[in-house]
Amino acid sequence: MTDHYAVIGNPIAHSKSPLIHAEFAKQCRQDLHYGRILAPVDGFRDTVARLQAEGYKGCNVTVPFKLEAWKLSTSLTRRAGDAESVNTLSFQDGGIYGDNTDGAGLVRDIGSNLGFSIRGSRILLMGAGGAARGVIRPLHDEGPAEIFIANRTVEKAKLLGEKFGIGAGSYEDLSGKSFDIVINATSSSLKEEVPPLPQGIFAQGSLAYDMMYGKEPTVFLKFAEAAGAKYRADGLGMLVEQAAESFYIWRGMRPETGSVIAKLRSC
Ligand code: ATR
Asked: Comparing C-alpha atoms, which of 89, 76, 35 is closest to residue 250?
């Protein structure tokens, strides 16, 4: 019998997750179907209840429902609890198990795919919304020398700084500092804007990472190149790696991701 999964979001038409999971399923010879479901903005809970009633095994959750998914979960992994954000639900024995695979996806993309060592590096994380919250603990667990959170609304950064015991502040506070890995977890690239980073923020040989991705380099990655970031990457690898982590949760198998990233890159 075919097992059913889906990604729930609003909007959802653009989602690459069905393609990614179809590739994983083929590779791992798993009999599953993975669809895409548009939920009304006020209809997430009902949509999840319907999927459970229909016998789905689980689902991924994307914008704008990750916080609601966290609230709806009847049990949470530590990383999902820390993030207050859930992107992976598993339905078992009437329960809703919530996890967040975004941070693991980012760590794997930076460490394994891009070959960058997080251990001992100085990391700047820009943004204090759900995207940033989801990756702090997994980055921290890799043993960096420092993580500093910068955000336009400084109070939000400070709250996260206190919660996770790391440095936090405004973009002005970054003056005179430099970092080995600069991660853009803001939504600024969507508006073709770049957070106001001071000169010298990119250390020698540093990596600029934008969680957003697109056919062309994002406006942040173009800025980073001009500002001297030697290595630059968008979030396509993270997207595939977070999907692989979800697949592992559901199916207990780790698919090979390099070929899937290359395939998405070319289409
Ligand atoms: P998400 O859940 O995707 O993180 P969010 O909670 O709306 O989305 O958070 C968006 C983040 O991008 C916030 O940190 C926001 O900064 P504020 O907290 O000050 O709003 C940040 N952001 C959005 N546009 C930005 C811009 N042009 N420059 C800097 N930061 C920006």
From this structure: 89
Strands 88-92 and 146-150: unpaired
CATH fold of 3-100+238-266: Rossmann fold (3.40.50)
Asked whether 9 lines ligand 1 (CB < 6 A), one says no
Q: Judge if pTM exceeds 0.85.
A: yes
* CB of 156 shorter than 6 A to ligand 1: yes
Give the pLDDT confidence of 78-115 residue by residue, as tens digits: 999 999 999 999 999 999 999 999 999 999 999 999 99
CATH code, residues 103-234: 3.40.50.720
Domain limits, the chain: 3-100+238-266, 103-234
Of 124, 187, 188, best ligand 1 pocket probe by most atoms within 8 Å of the beta carbon: 187
| Residue 198 tokens, joined | 């001071």
